[in-house]
Amino acid sequence: MRKIIQIAGAYIGVIVGAGFASGQEILQFFTSFGLIGIVGSIIAAFLFAFLGMQIALHGSILKTTSHKKVIYTICGKYIGIAVDILITFFLFGVAVVMIAGSGSIFQQQFGLSPIVGSIIMSILTILTLLLNVKKVIYIISSVTPFLLVLMFIITAYSIFTSSGDYVQLETAAAAQSSAAPHWLLGAILYVSYNIAAGFAMLSVIGGTVKDKKAAGWGGLLGGFGLGLLILLINIGMFANLDRLEGADMPTLLLATEISPVVGVLMSIALLGMIFNTAVGMLYAFTARFIPSETKMFKGGVIVIGILAFAASFVGFTILVGTIYPITGYLGLVLIIAIILSWIRTRKQNTIAY
């Protein structure tokens, strides 16, 4: 059971980056559609659970140390080549986004130069990656309960202090910019680009587990955990949407309203989530080229970490606007491939019986 919970925590930790925990992504993909966005968040939970279970299961069966084997198994030889190249490229890109994002948080919350936050995040990420993979998974999963507790507190506070009625809140939701033209498409796109970013590390996490059932259950539980976070953030923001207009980090605003101490804790949680994602992405990227059990891996981590820091100077906003939309389309390809692979496996098992 401990291994299942650890896998679930690591899955959540890798997926939840700055935009997720801050509420900005949830606002655009779910809350902006009003009350029906809650249905979207429930659908997203089931998608995250199903996809997480399949990816972790494949990783465990193949005993993979990088995402390559899982990609080729699911997508086939020819499509697998293209998907492998794109995922590898975006692993580095998302890691760069996280490093740039940490600089933005240090500037906004603490009034420091963005380069200070980026340097600190780069050093912490590199130092963590010099550990073995099981320690990396433990570190990533350990931050998740902290964020869940904070989100329960913020959501409960938001519901009990909400001053707007249903009509006011729906009007405020309609005024928000949405990331998709329809609530259902918004839910699917949100899952797709997150699963594209988290696919590689989840494959590696699954590969560390000998018991394939434990790996599958870990992916399933982690997916539902992600869904619970989406639901909590969504409800909390919808209940106070009339007060959140123009907020870059809605959950941080709600946390600060409860208490400055809670606001600081939320800032720490945001940085923790960025750290988790940066570690997961850079680990999976490096492991794609250099096996993690070799001596060369640590040297590769240092070089790639420095390159990611240098690339972060492009700017957080530009990086997000360039990398995330394309990652969404890649995620759709992965979702379709995973579903088709699942159908093929079920048919083969039926014929075998």
TrEMBL record:
The keyword Transmembrane applies. The chain crosses the membrane at residues 33-57, 78-100, 112-131, 138-160, 180-205, 217-241, 261-285, 297-320, 326-343. InterPro entries: YkvI-like. The keyword Chloroplast does not apply. Keywords: Membrane, Transmembrane, Transmembrane helix. PANTHER family: CONSERVED MEMBRANE PROTEIN, MEMBRANE PROTEIN. This is Membrane protein YkvI. It comes from Bacillus chungangensis.
